[in-house]
Amino acid sequence: MTRNAIVIGAGPSGLATAVCLQKAGFEVAVLERDDRVGSAWHTHYDSLKLHTSRGRSGLPGLPIPRSAGKYPSRADVASYLETYAQTFDLDVRLGFAVDRVDPENGGWVVRHEHGDDVAEVVVFATGLNGQPNRPGWPGLDSFPGPVMHASEYRNPHRFIDRRVLVVGFGNSGADIATDLSGAGIVTGLSVRSPVNIVPQEILGIPVTSLSLLRRALGPAAADRMTAPVIETLVGRPEDYGLRKAAKGPVRQVVEDGRVPMIDVGVLAAIKAGRVAVHPGIERFDGASVRFADGTEGAYDSLITATGYRVDLSAFLPDVPDVLDAAGRPKVSGGPSGRAGLYFCSYHASPNGQLRQSAFEAEKIAEHAARVLA
Fold first, then answer.
1. Which pLDDT band, with edges at 50, 70 and 90, does 213 fall under?
2. Which secondary-structure segment (H or E) carries 224?
3. 298 and 241, same domain (yes or no)
């Protein structure tokens, strides 16, 4: 007997889940609100490359081609996702924005702009990059230049002859600051919180490939063992005018869901003076930015690399028990507590998010097939 499933989102986690469910005997429809598969990968900044290696980033059943190199680019990933959907002949329905999902008669009703669909299994796979966090500061309305979130940044071209302040020291913020400074643009980087910095590779091994060490030793011991090597390769945060986090990078991901900054060039730019490091912002006074340590800087463009919020509560008004107080799924990659309802890749992973998506997709399909057998 054929079982039917609906996957919400045609990004990496949605496509991976659809393929795994299809292989498990489900008839699967993928509903995507945008007009193409992997839409976010078509709009990320141009210089983006995976921080995880190609060999550990492929989705189930189809590796990323060797032509993409060791660390595939944004364009490579976007092309791969389109090929992935075509290879497995997935039923991807573009322009299907989901409004809500309701339990009904032991299954689920997915309500969208084109009507309602019923399924025994529903998987949310809309990703960690939900709604951009757009912080505010006193005096921001007096700032004369453009203010944009990192999700809106594409390349340095529009910032030539401008002074740009990037806020946030996650991987996007570091990449964008490197991109801007490499184009000769006056670039500042505001970092409010203590940080972990790690090299992209340790002894030729991608840092995201050291999961075996974490599993064998545990997060705290893995951090202690790798700390001297990391310091030898990239130095200490204090060497760059930054503050060191209280937890090591592995504990930070596992316990707090925060990925450390994987260096692909920003540390060299800071050392060379091409990127000026500032503490957190206190207030704006026109183009003058006052920082928490009392210093000031003059900038005329602002890019906030301040992350995203995930809140699915509006989609599941009658099933609040599967979400935490902020609207994030309590369980990702396993049974949610409601039969037939799953969430894929909503928790940050030290292994890289594409690999985590593949792992969770397989677990979801396995569980769904077993429960409905």
1. low
2. helix 219-234
3. yes
Domain end residue (candidates: 304, 325, 359): 304
Q: At which residue do the structure tokens 């995507």 appear? A: 32
Question: Two tokens at 21?
Answer: 């469910």
Tens digits of residue pLDDT in 77-94: 999 999 999 999 999 999
Closest CA relative to residue 251, chosen from 277, 284, 303, 214: 214
E strands, 266-337, are: 275-278, 281-285, 288-291, 296-298, 301-304, 308-309
pLDDT of residue 289: 97
Q: Which residues contact 11 (CB under 8 A, 6 or more apart)?
A: 38, 39, 40, 41, 81, 125, 126, 127
Same domain as 339, residue 197: no
Report CA torsion sign: 337, 339, 340, 341: negative
52 token code pair = 């995880």
d(CA 48, CA 154): 9
C-alpha distance across the termini of the chain, in Å: 9
pTM of the model: 0.92
| Joined tokens for residue 202 | 């340790």
Q: Which residue has the tokens 């071209």?
A: 157
Cα separation of 260 and 209, whole Å?
A: 14
Q: Looking at the structure, tell me whether residues 263 and 158 fall in a common domain.
A: yes
184 plus 316 within the same structural domain:
no
**Domain extent for 286:** 134-304
Sign of CA dihedral 368, 328, 332, 359: positive
Q: Is residue 171 within 8 Å of residue 194, measured between CB atoms?
A: no
- Count the neighbouring beta carbons within 10 Å of the beta carbon of residue 259: 21
Chosen domain end from 304, 323, 349: 304
Amino acid (1-letter code) at residue 303: I
Q: How many residues does the chain have?
A: 373
